[in-house]
């Protein structure tokens, strides 16, 4: 079955996420955008994933729990998991690695924990905008321990990306693919170190109006989070289908 997907979305728990990006409203917007497969990937936390999964289910969406991890090198990595317990376990491993300072809501904004009915449960006090004390070469292996997969986010951007901060793609990092921004420069794909690297595009939406309409698709043998993760681990560029305009 061919399913549209966006696997990099933020809720109001992310320090730079819009207050309107509640798990419930984000799921509703994804449904309106015509998406089939989605993932919540807040910065350095999976705290709102349970609420998002429940809200997504009401809209008939296949949702994965995840996290956009910031490594020691200040590179953003999207980490996705097959179920909520796996994501919560990964979250528990990452939280002690965050900077030992509290969030400053006045500067970074409140980090809101919510249920699937738009009820505020509290605020996350940890400094989610910081870098975790984990190196980029460690991420793929740790994610795999929880049944998940990981890939570098928005590698074309001038900050918080693998290419901007490290300057190169290294197969020894063991990432199966790379994420490009929606308006990535075509010349980027001419880099020799990206030759043969599978690429997908996600919205990285921090606000509801940034959720993109369905435009790319994956073929799955079954509609399940495990099938999505397997596809991400094995897909080639010829397996990523785009809507014709």
From the structure above, extract its key features.
single chain; 245 residues; alpha/beta; two-stranded antiparallel ribbon; 7 helices; 21% strand
Tell me about this structure:
The structure is a single chain. Helix content is 24%, strand content 21%. The chain contains seven helices and eleven strands. The chain has a seven-stranded mixed β-sheet with strand order 7-4-3-2-1-10-11, sandwiched between helices. A two-stranded antiparallel sheet has the order 5-6. The two termini are 21 Å apart. 42% of the residues are buried.
Which term fits the overall shape? Answer: globular
Q: How many β-strands, per DSSP?
A: 11
| Largest sheet descriptor | 7 strands, mixed
Helix content: 10-25%
What is the compact description of this entry?
This protein has 245 residues and is an alpha/beta fold. The chain has seven helices and eleven strands.
Topology:
Layout: E1 2-9, H1 23-32, E2 37-40, H2 49-58, E3 62-70, E4 76-80, H3 84-94, H4 105-108, E5 112-114, E6 120-123, H5 136-145, E7 149-152, H6 162-165, E8 177-180, E9 198-201, E10 216-219, H7 225-234, E11 241-242
């Amino acid at each position: 079955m061919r399913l549209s997907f966006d696997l990099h979305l933020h809720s109001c728990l992310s320090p730079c996420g819009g207050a309107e990006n509640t798990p419930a409203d984000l799921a509703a917007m994804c449904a309106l955008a015509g998406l089939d497969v989605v993932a919540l990937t807040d910065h350095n936390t999976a705290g709102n994933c349970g609420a998002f999964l429940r809200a997504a289910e009401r809209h008939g969406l296949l949702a994965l729990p995840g996290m956009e991890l910031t490594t020691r090198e200040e590179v953003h990595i999207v980490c996705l998991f097959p179920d909520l317990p796996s994501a919560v376990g990964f979250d528990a491993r990452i939280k002690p690695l965050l900077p030992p300072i509290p969030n400053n809501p006045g500067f970074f904004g409140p980090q809101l924990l919510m249920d699937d009915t738009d009820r505020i449960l509290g605020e996350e006090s940890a400094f989610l905008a910081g870098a975790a004390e984990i190196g980029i070469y460690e991420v793929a292996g740790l994610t795999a321990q929880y049944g998940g997969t990981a890939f570098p986010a928005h590698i074309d951007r001038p900050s918080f990306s693998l290419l901007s901060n490290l300057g190169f793609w290294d197969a020894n990092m063991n990432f199966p693919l790379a994420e490009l921004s929606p308006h990535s420069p075509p010349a980027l794909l001419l880099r020799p170190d990206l030759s043969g690297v599978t690429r997908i595009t996600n919205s990285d939406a921090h606000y509801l109006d940034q959720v993109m309409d369905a435009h790319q698709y994956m073929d799955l043998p079954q509609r399940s989070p495990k099938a999505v993760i397997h596809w991400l681990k094995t897909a080639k560029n010829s397996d990523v289908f785009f809507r014709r305009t």
